[in-house]
Please model this.
Amino acid sequence: MPDSELMPIGVFARRSGLTPSALRFYADSALLVPAAVDPVTGYRYYSAAQVAPATALRRLREMAMPLPGVEAVLAAGSDEASRLVDEHVAGVLREAAAARRAAAVVKASLAGVPALPIAVLKGPVLADAVEQVLTATVRERGMPVLAGVHVEVTREAVSLTATDRYRLSTRTLVPAEPPLRTWAGTVDGDELRTAAAAIRRGATVRMEAMPHGIRLRVAHLEDQYCRLLIEEEFPDHRQMLAALGEVTTRATVSKDLLLRALEEHPGDPIGLHVTDCSLSLLPTCDGDVEHRLPATGRGQALRIWFELTTLYPAVSTAIGPDVMLDLRGDAQPVTIRSADRGDLTTLAMPVKPDHST
Model:
């Protein structure tokens, strides 16, 4: 290769994002050997073709991948390299989760405050409730509380609530034993999701309050810790629920039929036409016909539109074979819940008919 096509180490460092000292280290490690070395001066030169692997090397190291793993990725084909990267990221996430759990234990011991028992719940029931309300969480910059689940314990019940501002899901659970005290806090949703997989295997789960989170205890299994999100307060969902207007239209429809219709509907947003004897999905273009589903209802006929990403999870997490929709006009939240069980309730915000994503 002509010398004119080679770059000195300083130029190559700027193009690859690696420092000259890092390039020397990777050369000595045989991970990125220079294209040429001046036999007199010892100066190292690199080719333009080495920029891509050097950049990949830098990014892999930024992911905290050890040198043997980097070497394996760079030497592998595309599919195998992708698998190795995914495997490494999964390991990092497992280690991070374990570190967070260990940190919760350490912080609790440093605080010197004993854990306070607050509620006893059935493990499978709590796990189902967690997974149902988690569909209403969202990761949003500047609002970390929206990625959490608000846990509220009263003398009669335990409530789990989550919201992404377009949906609000709340599930009320009857404790296996009367709660010992009242308590409220917003728990990290990802950690609660991880804990749900473990607590599902326990007949009962003991929930305990700690200074920086909650501990979920299942007999013969490892304790699960979930940290509290304290950066900001959870939205006042009770005030929002209390401020809802009167229901003007109510429809009860098969959950499976409605989900299938939403899956097959070509449009977004999705328009619903509710009458006293049917619920229809409105056509998306001229010439199409309404997709009518059998339903029972009462009140005023109404047309209302929703984003698929808002309406579908609200319906899919409902309990039981039939869902009930309580509507308050085309610009007010609709309440979606089981037709015969009210312990899981979801509110979904509609959009304007001409709304486009």
Residues 78-111 form the longest helix (34 residues). DSSP finds ten helices and 19 strands in the chain.
